[in-house]
């Protein structure tokens, strides 16, 4: 919405835009995926609350398109799922998954460095050596936090 003086509101399960000249446009709220507000348009508190209940994000921009911020509901967060995820943090599953992810990333970076070395003629032997050492040390990581440590705990 970038019409100066326009007001966005909600009534009878519909979102409306009321323009400064009095014209009113209605949209079924079920069809909205998001609302973008630019410049001097306004949105009613009732409309904001309805959007938050329904998980419809509201984004604010200046007239020139500078981003101000976003209003989004946290109602989509499943607290029970987050508790289960947190409980898995240092489980054998999490450690093995971390090992596989880090190993894959190191392997891919080694390939990228080799290609760079070949195309640019620059020696990256020392960097390749450090990455190989890191890959070898992955087997000695027994907690998720061990994977965050520089050089995987020399």
How would you describe the overall organization of this protein?
With 154 residues, the chain is of the alpha/beta class. The protein folds into 2 domains: 7-71, Ribosomal Protein L15, Chain: K, domain 2; 79-152, no CATH class. The chain is built from 4 helices and 7 strands. It has a 4-stranded mixed β-sheet with strand order 3-2-1-5. A 3-stranded mixed β-sheet has the order 4-6-7. Helix 3 packs antiparallel against helix 4.
The coarse overall form would be elongated
Radius of gyration: 26 Å
The total domain count is: 2
**SS class:** alpha/beta
| Order of strands in the sheet with most strands | 3-2-1-5
Q: Give the terminus-to-terminus CA distance.
A: 56 Å
List keywords for this structure.
elongated; Ribosomal Protein L15, Chain: K, domain 2; 2 domains; alpha/beta; 3-stranded mixed beta sheet; 4-stranded mixed beta sheet; 4 helices; 154 residues
Write the topology of this structure:
Layout: E1 7-11, E2 14-18, E3 24-28, E4 35-38, E5 42-43, H1 45-54, E6 58-61, E7 67-71, H2 79-87, H3 92-120, H4 125-137
Parallel strand pairs: 1-5, 4-6
Antiparallel strand pairs: 1-2, 2-3, 6-7
Helix pairs in contact: 3-4
Short précis:
This protein is α/β, with parallel strands linked by helices. Helix content is 40%, strand content 19%. A four-stranded mixed sheet has the order 3-2-1-5. It has a three-stranded mixed sheet with strand order 4-6-7.
